Amino acid sequence: MGVFATTEDPGSSGHEQVVFCQDKQTGLKAIIGIYSTALGPALGGTRFYPYASESDALADVLDLSRGMAYKNALAGLDLGGGKAVIWGDPERIKSEALLRAYGRFVESLAGRYYTACDVGTYVADMDVIARETSYVTGRSVEHGGAGDSSILTAWGVFQGMRAAAEHVWGAPTLAGRRVGVAGLGKVGKYLVGHLIDDGAEVVATDVNPRALEWARATHPQVTLVDDAAALVAADIDVYAPCALGGALNDDTVPALRAKVVAGAANNQLAHSGIEKLLADRGILYAPDYVVNAGGVIQVADEIEGFNFDRAKLRATRIYDTTREILRLADAEGVPPAVAADRLAERRMADVGRLRTIHLR
Ligand SMILES: NC(=O)c1ccc[n+]([C@@H]2O[C@H](COP(=O)([O-])OP(=O)(O)OC[C@H]3O[C@@H](n4cnc5c(N)ncnc54)[C@H](O)[C@@H]3O)[C@@H](O)[C@H]2O)c1
């Protein structure tokens, strides 16, 4: 994928800025992608991953930063979209000096980009990066940060699921529904708690025996099944992918018995066209980046000085946003994933345009 969008090359990404950063001493090789600052500084995490090649790292950062612009727009944040990747094996090369070198590159963008955690980076890493830059979120509570973002991610997924349930069955509750949760990790665990409190029956699976032990000990009423394939084929009303991406693919969608899909995992649609397959089967898909925005809402709140109640209120609004997207999808005769993209683009254009009103 090229970086510069031109009319001759419509496949190009259209990013505002892409920055390559290198520090030979520490082995740092990072790419920071800023897709859009139409709504404010770009916010998105740093992925630390051993990509096979520089072009794989570039493709990932271009993709992820674009996704963040849409997620932040629909989360109602005054923030644009960006993301960064550090190319390398975190197990081998992550060090204080490397993270601080990276922090200095983030600082050099003077607030056009705020970073946060992603795959391969943790709250403790953000505390280290924060020693070199103020443009970092997702720090520990002791350092004025928002801490574990999975708390509000799970809360937001639950709100999106309520909106989807209302759209399909007429009431914003999961009471009496069978909900299948694939992945009992940081988010899945909190989600199971919300579902049980709401009166849902939970069926779940995880590849990690410790996660299954947790479920048996904490929520003995949860039915555990062997794997995600068994969950997809189970008699469930709602499917909540909360593990890895690509959960909705050419194999799982035809086998799925649920009427609603709403979960935390990023990039649930294995490829474009799956949203249409879901719609054709009469399955309502609440777009992943809409319902899992609670985490970014939580860390974004840190920029103002973290206040959990304010952040929770914002994450609760995922219910309203999901409702609006489902209404728009019906009105415009498109799958919810398309309606969500349209709504995000509208906000970026309409609210972003206000900056053309000259103030001083
Ligand atoms: N944590 C957040 O704030 C946040 C925010 C937005 C999106 N997400 C996304 O939500 C998903 C879950 O995030 P998390 O923080 O809970 O991650 P996590 O690593 O804590 O949990 C993932 C769980 O899925 C399990 N798993 C992996 N492969 C599986 C499989 N094939 N079948 C069943 N279970 C499997 C793992 O054992 C683990 O328990 C990820 O896709 C993540 O990108 C998380």
UniProtKB/TrEMBL annotation:
Entry-linked PANTHER family: LEUCINE DEHYDROGENASE, VALINE DEHYDROGENASE
Q: Which UniProt keywords apply?
A: NAD, Oxidoreductase
Query: Residue ranges of the Glutamate/phenylalanine/leucine/valine/L-tryptophan dehydrogenase C-terminal domain?
Result: 147-356
> What protein family is recorded?
Belongs to the Glu/Leu/Phe/Val dehydrogenases family.
Q: Where does the sequence pass through the membrane?
A: none
- What PROSITE patterns does its record include? GLFV_DEHYDROGENASE
Name the species this protein comes from: Micromonospora reichwaldensis
**Which InterPro entries does the record cross-reference, listed alphabetically?**
Aminoacid_DH-like_N_sf, Glu/Leu/Phe/Val/Trp_DH, Glu/Leu/Phe/Val/Trp_DH_C, Glu/Leu/Phe/Val/Trp_DH_dimer, Glu/Leu/Phe/Val_DH_AS, Glu/Phe/Leu/Val/Trp_DH_bac/arc, NAD(P)-bd_dom_sf
Instruction: Indicate what this protein is called per its UniProt record.
Output: Glu/Leu/Phe/Val dehydrogenase dimerization domain-containing protein
